[in-house]
């Protein structure tokens, strides 16, 4: 009998052809993970091959945010699921398999199976980056992801106020416990610009910066609040595409550059 391993991380297997898996997470819901994931993926795809996986099984938002509502993936004779193609990227979400608004009422094992299928049975092909949009919190999906595949780096999205920081700390702590490197924190809805160009603080600035300094973590960037960001989400055209010259789009471009610099030259995939 083969020896059984007690270490769940022994089940970790790279995805053949995929060089860098980047996880977009947050402690708190609604802080902008999916917005960040779609916009960063778009910017990264300007210089590399990118896949975008919506791992939010209970609340998928990728089909709407990428203007691909109602599309259904094809399955090959070998049982490989073909990702949806959009803006030159490969997309996958549970939202392509169930109707929008239909509640997925699955227990844990079904969730793991769905995530596993998305990682193993989707024809991702060669990718420089696989960006994974996670559900909020520090639950089973995050744990399973880190046990199944080598996550090259995690990003924690938060908003400025201390009430969000409490939850961001939990996400940072979770990745540290799972030995997943943290690329940095993104402060979304950081401020709003008045017509005169003055910064308006929508949320009171909390102690994020001093916390990051103490933890030796970096803030990858600040994304301002602007209605064009949410309108673009609703319209299915990420703001980096719909308003490429805007401050918000420029913030995403700068963050993507910071991520690329942190990851260094794109690593070769390790084929099993
Ligand atoms: N910088 C921004 N400016 C304006 N609106 C924004 C900004 N970032 C996100 N939003 C809007 O806030 C809402 C929540 O964003 P999003 O869905 O990306 O959050 P989330 O963290 O993925 O949420 P969930 O936890 O439910 O998955 C959306 O309507 C989105 O368009
Ligand atoms: Mg989301």
Structure, described:
The protein is 34% helix and 18% strand. The chain has nine helices and ten strands. The strands form two sheets. It has an eight-stranded mixed sheet, sandwiched between helices. Strands 8-9 form a two-stranded antiparallel ribbon. It is globular. Magnesium ion binds at residues 33-34, 56, 61, 133.
Secondary structure elements and their pairing?
Elements: E1 18-25, H1 33-44, E2 50-54, H2 62-65, E3 84-86, E4 89-93, H3 108-120, E5 127-133, H4 140-148, E6 153-158, H5 162-177, E7 182-188, E8 192-193, E9 199-200, H6 208-215, E10 219-223, H7 227-235, H8 239-242, H9 247-263
Parallel strand pairs: 1-5, 1-6, 2-4, 2-5, 6-7, 7-10
Antiparallel strand pairs: 3-4, 8-9
This protein binds adenosine-5'-triphosphate and magnesium ion.
Main beta sheet strand tally, sense and closure: 8 strands, mixed
Give the names of the bound compounds: adenosine-5'-triphosphate, magnesium ion
Q: What number is the mean pLDDT? A: 92
Number of DSSP E strands: 10
User: What ranges have pLDDT less than 50 throughout 5 or more consecutive residues?
Assistant: 267-272
Characterize the overall form: globular
N-to-C order of helices and strands: EHEHEEHEHEHEEEHEHHH
Domain count: the total is 1
Give the class from helix and strand content and strand pairing.
alpha/beta
Helix content: 25-40%
Read across the widest sheet, the strand sequence of neighbours is 3-4-2-5-1-6-7-10
* CATH C-level label: Alpha Beta
Please report the number of helical segments: 9
Percent of residues in beta strands = 15-25%
Distance between the termini: 22 Å
CATH architecture label name:
3-Layer(aba) Sandwich
CATH fold assignment: Rossmann fold
How large, in whole angstroms, is the Cα Rg? 18 Å
CATH superfamily: P-loop containing nucleotide triphosphate hydrolases
């Amino acid at each position: 009998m083969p020896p059984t391993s007690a270490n769940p991380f022994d089940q970790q297997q790279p995805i053949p052809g995929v060089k860098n898996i980047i996880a977009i997470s947050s402690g708190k819901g609604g802080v902008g993970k999916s917005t960040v994931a779609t916009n960063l993926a778009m910017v990264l795809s300007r210089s590399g091959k990118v896949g975008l996986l919506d791992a939010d099984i209970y609340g998928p938002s990728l089909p709407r945010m990428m203007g691909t509502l109602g599309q259904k993936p094809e399955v090959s004779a070998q049982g490989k699921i073909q990702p949806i193609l959009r803006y030159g990227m490969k997309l996958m979400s549970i939202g392509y398999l169930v109707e929008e608004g239909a509640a997925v009422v699955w227990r844990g094992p079904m969730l793991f199976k769905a995530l596993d299928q998305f990682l193993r049975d989707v024809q991702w092909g060669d990718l420089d980056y696989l960006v994974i949009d996670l559900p909020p919190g520090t639950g089973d999906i995050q744990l399973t992801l880190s046990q199944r595949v080598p996550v090259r780096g995690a990003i924690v999205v938060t908003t400025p106020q201390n009430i969000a920081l409490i939850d961001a700390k939990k996400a940072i702590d979770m990745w540290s416990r799972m030995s997943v490197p943290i690329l940095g924190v993104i402060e979304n809805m950081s401020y709003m610009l008045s017509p005169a160009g003055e910064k308006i603080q929508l949320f009171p600035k909390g102690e994020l910066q001093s916390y990051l300094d103490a933890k030796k973590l970096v803030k990858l960037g600040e994304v301002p609040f602007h209605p064009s960001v949410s309108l673009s989400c609703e319209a299915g055209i990420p703001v980096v595409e719909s308003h490429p010259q805007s401050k918000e789009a420029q913030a995403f471009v700068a963050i993507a550059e910071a991520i690329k610099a942190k990851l260094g030259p794109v690593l070769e995939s390790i084929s099993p």
